[in-house]
Write a structure and sequence with these properties.
The protein is an alpha/beta fold. It contains eight helices and nine strands. Strands 6-5-4-7-8-9 form a six-stranded parallel sheet, sandwiched between helices. It has a three-stranded parallel sheet with strand order 1-2-3, covered by helices on one side. The longest helix is centred in the C-terminal third of the chain and has 22 residues. The protein is globular and about 70 Å long.
């Protein structure tokens, strides 16, 4: 439909369509800079993400009660491999709880059964269904540490968690959709929250949970980190994209002279 077409956001892997010429990415989503997996040519931005926090977001408060992990991503991202790792983490941190976003349905009981099979009692798991934006953001004030699902990691949800002062543990995968957390955390210099394998994921989450004072300090610093990072530099992001458009157009013009 157009001489030059680009795919961006919502799904950071390939469109599979030969009509699409380019895809936006960044150095963490595609650290090796190879295009074998993509129909499109990859075009790296300084940051793939440009986050605008929701207006009137609640202020960050100290999470009450026992240490609570949480994942408010779409439930369809929670794989069996994710559940197995989270179960081991809950074993490692015996008094901890886990809050998950999941609409009502039989899948809730199926998940509880999976946890029960590895010795995790249902009373340690809490489900939260659909809720208005303000309530969703306020839910993060009940969560100490967010757990990124894998192999399909969170994107905007990860940014929301960080904006609400909740550090996120992520597992670095091999594909772009598995490296969203790597990209986001690298932009705020929190590479220490990026795990390279499942065991490291558990160790990092348990370590953050064990160091309560450091967790408290990190919690209150996350909004400022984001505000001073490329994640929220909308002007710089717009300039990067505009530069990309101009260069793509010049290449097309040059190839059709």
């Amino acid at each position: 439909p157009a001489p030059v077409q680009i795919t961006y956001l919502a799904y950071c892997s390939t469109s599979g369509l030969e009509a699409i010429d380019y895809r936006f990415t960044d150095g963490q989503l595609d650290p090796l800079g190879k295009d074998e997996c993509y129909v499109e040519k990859s075009w790296g931005l300084r940051s793939y993400w440009c986050y605008a926090p929701p207006k009137d977001a609640p202020r960050i408060e100290r999470a009450p009660g026992p240490l609570t992990f949480g994942c408010l991503n779409n439930f369809c991202k929670i794989s069996d491999a994710t559940i197995a790792v989270w179960g081991k983490l809950l074993e490692r941190v015996p008094e901890s709880r886990l809050i998950l976003h999941a609409h009502a349905g039989t899948h809730r009981q199926e998940l509880l059964d999976q946890f029960a099979n590895i010795g995790i009692l249902a009373e340690r798991i809490e489900f939260a269904g659909f809720m208005p934006l303000a309530e969703y953001l306020a839910m993060y004030n009940r969560i100490d540490i967010a757990l990124d699902p894998f192999p399909y990691a969170g994107g905007t949800t990860t940014c929301d968690a960080l904006w609400m002062g909740v550090p996120v543990i992520t597992l670095a995968g091999k594909t772009a959709v598995a490296r969203a957390g790597c990209s986001i955390l690298s932009q705020i210099n929190l590479q220490e929250l990026i795990a390279e394998n499942a065991e490291e994921y558990i160790n990092k989450a348990a370590s953050v949970a064990a160091h309560k004072n450091a967790l408290k300090e990190l919690r209150v610093s996350l909004r400022e980190r984001m505000q001073h990072s490329p994640l929220m530099d909308a002007n710089a992001f717009a300039r990067d994209v505009e530069h990309a458009y101009r260069e793509m157009w010049n290449r097309w013009c040059g190839s059709n002279e």
